[in-house]
Amino acid sequence: MKILIDGIEIEAQPGETILEATRRTGIHIPTLCYHEAFGGQGSCRFCMVEVTKNGSSRVVASCTYPVNDGIEVKTSTPQIDKIRRNIAMLLYKRAPNSLFMQTLYKEYLCTENNLVEDPYEKCILCRLCVNACAAMGASAISTVMRGTDKRVATPYDDASAACIGCAACAEVCPTGCIEVQEDNNIRRIWNRDFTMVACEECGKNFATREQLAYIADRSKQEADADELRLCTNCRRKVLARKLETFNG
Amino acid sequence: MGKKSKRKQVLVCCGTGCIANGGLDVYQAFKNNPGGLFELASSDDIKATGCHGLCSSGPFVRILPDDITYCQVKAGDVEEIIEKSIKGNELIKRLLYRDPQSKKRVQNLEKVAFNSMQLKKALRNVGLINPESLQDYLDRQGYQALRKALKMKPEAVVQEIIDAGLRGRGGGGFPTGLKWKACQATTSTPKYIVCNGDEGDPGAFMDESIMEGDPHNILEGMLICAYTVGAAKGFIYVRDEYAGSVAALTKAISDAREHGFMGDNILGSGLNFDIEIVRGGGAFVCGEETALLASIEGNVGEPWDKYVFPTEKGLWGQPTVINNVETWSNVPLILLEGAKKFASTGTAGSKGTKVFSLVGKVVNTGLVEVPMGTSLRDIIFTIGGGVPGKRKFKAVQTGGPSGGCIPESLLDLKVDFDSLGQAGSMMGSGGMIVMDDRTCMVEVARYYLQFLAGESCGKCVPCREGIRSMLEILERICNGGGCLQDLDLLEDIGETVKTAALCALGRTAPNPVLSTLKYFRDEYLEHIVNHRCPAGVCKELSEFYIDAELCNGCGLCAKNCPVDAVQGEKKQPHVIDNSKCIKCGECINDCQFLAVKVR
Amino acid sequence: METDALITNQSEELDAIINKYPGEKRYIMAIMHDISRHFNYLPRQALEATAQYTGVPFSQVYSMATFYKAFSLVPRGRVHFKVCDGTTCHIKGSQIIIDEICSRLNIKPGETTADLQFSLETVNCIGACAIAPALLANGKVHPHLNAAGIRQVIAEYGGPEYGKKE
What we know:
CATH superfamily of the largest domain in chain C: Glutaredoxin
Largest interface: B-C, 58 and 50 residues
Distance between the termini of chain B: 68 Å
Order of helices and strands of chain C: HHHHHEHHEEEH
Strand content of chain B: 15-25%
Strand order of the largest sheet of chain C: 2-1-3-4
Strand order of the largest sheet of chain B: 9-10-8-7-11
Number of strands of chain C: 4
Shape of chain B: globular
Radius of gyration of chain B: 26 Å
Largest sheet of chain B: 5 strands, mixed
Number of strands of chain B: 20
Largest sheet of chain C: 4 strands, mixed
Oligomer: heterotrimer
CATH class of the largest domain in chain B: Alpha Beta
Number of domains of chain C: 2
């Protein structure tokens, strides 16, 4: 089907969202809670666009709005720019301690106001960490409470038995608010200590013991499988060597 | 049958309001069969019914066929009622309702202003039947609509609902028939029917009264829909606080199963349908369709974007029709009286009636059902009897926490889905809260935002952070720390929340702020510029004093003051010691002479 | 912890509650309601058992338990006051009721007295608007309250009597 985005006609596939269709064109729609791996959540509302269908217009979240034939999309209008500016302002007021929000606040030309700022907060509650944790299969963290008290935590804020210390949550976090400390082969994350395992090739720490045990259990691999012994880099090298031998 | 009509019936109101005032004790007193009562009215004829509506004067005892209604009855009055009015034909004057306008005692409550302007459709059985009795429901054409529908083509049933012009009573106002039609058109199975009984609006209890007082009516509505769209499974999501509703619905479902109205091959038609009750967890946001569905699925009650309607992808991704309690209770009636008759009541865009819970600073509080298009003035002043005491009407808040406050100048507004929206408020599920000059509109806005801050699911940024920020500003204004720029900021954030929030809770959350800013801006300015709360509610900004000219020294305020801050000799003007005063306002509320004032 | 021992002693009861329902995600809320009714709160072990029984991650069960207001993660008092702070009750003075309970029992909303006799919670609307302001004490509605009325109610449930602050 054909849809019009900022005046440009593009071919869209049924079932995909406006955001997905737009990304292929190179037109940029800013997002905060979107990640290709998890799909649209519709929670940050930063990706709002204006959609006109049968002559009537509305503002929708492009990450969840499924394309349909003949729609016309505008990714920037005065109304939408104002929404984005206010969202940047509100999130900065929530998490002024993150460089990410400080940058965004300036980029969107937010005007000063006297709303209270929490000087220590970095989290913008995009929940990418929760999604990443679930995708890893651990589901050790979740959102707790609701409304303005909502936050991300492990149950009872205790060290979680389900956590495997993979730090996928910290990796995907845009504001760097999930603390991962590593020293003496011990990784500390979400109030729990994990022993790191070194890569048999290069000697660098590459995973926690619990993470490897989890992978072994899930993929039913032998203990000597490359995945459980080597870091990603070295695995790639080993694979390359094997291919060379094979080809040569 | 002739004999039956001579038999007396005693209806004791056991709605939530009346139970709190001792309604169950009254009912039990009748059930104890004092003075050989059962010779005149069999045990079955003494019914514990749902809400009679005029809750402020309960508990009620209504005696049929004479149609005598006694108000504020105590268990101790029961023997006298039996002797005089059931065995004899004597009226007990002191228990009759005293009409606030004419000051006369009235025997038949149906004839007082509170009731005469009402038109009971959704509430047609509430208060007249014993909700636990299937037979009572059957006696009032119960399950006749289902029988009729089962003989029609499903498409014809849907068309009847479309022609009736029924719109969703839960607040959205979406045409019910179109919803059903969309679901009917989908081919994916299974399909689900859901009843939204998660009435979370603070200030509304109409759904509770229907669930408690006429549960079969809801089941019948759902059954008819199940037949038209081809669903085999239904859910009723009820607030856990509504213990009476859960009990009544549970009994009704089990009775319906037993008598072939539910289960397999219903009434021999081949229709299979059953209903499960889901107890809610106490989350206002679950009144939002998709959040409610998420909750039934066993998730936190967070809504999702409804760009694809639940009729296509709802519960577990399957086609789902979800309607509110009051909407369901209108369905059997439409089948019984026909779409044309149903649509003859109401306005061009909103057909039928609407139940409002009329509460707050109004003489007659309770449930009222009026034709769409009735003016606010009629509802509040004719039916409600106006503001009690010598206080002055200030505003009426409609549509629940995310509705708006409507000022006196708009009282002639004909109430329907569209007119309320244009006035910056909304129908919501039908809460109607009357406010007088003792209500601070800034504090009201603050109150609603505080409510919504705790009830927002917290998923989307505009709602979560926007409400937090607006609440922060309002708290500042109420505490005397506001500045004029705050008002612009409130409007700026409010506009963004209104357009960008994910669900209707968020999108309507700024209404209390924006509507009070629109109609009561002067009160905001009083708080900010003059550091004064004219209503005497915001404690930091009010100081009470007694006008010596008006005070006759009755001493009522001094007696009721919880901190002994009022002093004075009997029959001499009293004074308030402001060092002791906690500004609870009890003295203002007590004073019949309006002598206690706010500086 | 004392409360943990309480649960260990009642593990059979806990199993009985949970086993009443099929082990599916959609019954979590119903299970939690029943647990809450039995123990007067949601003990941690009970939540863990629910997660295991339904095959849902513990973090998600915990997420639900903290999302829905009907549930408490700390023990509630033998007498549980739910003060209605719905709109009608609010404009008719529920704050006075709340303040009075707080000062007489020395607890804040969401808290329980040290002797586990009373706990206080504010709720949105109990559907008793016509008889506002109202409070639910262990499910019983007390209508038309004011400062004096709530003192009586507190005394009625074994709290300090008026004039005799503890």
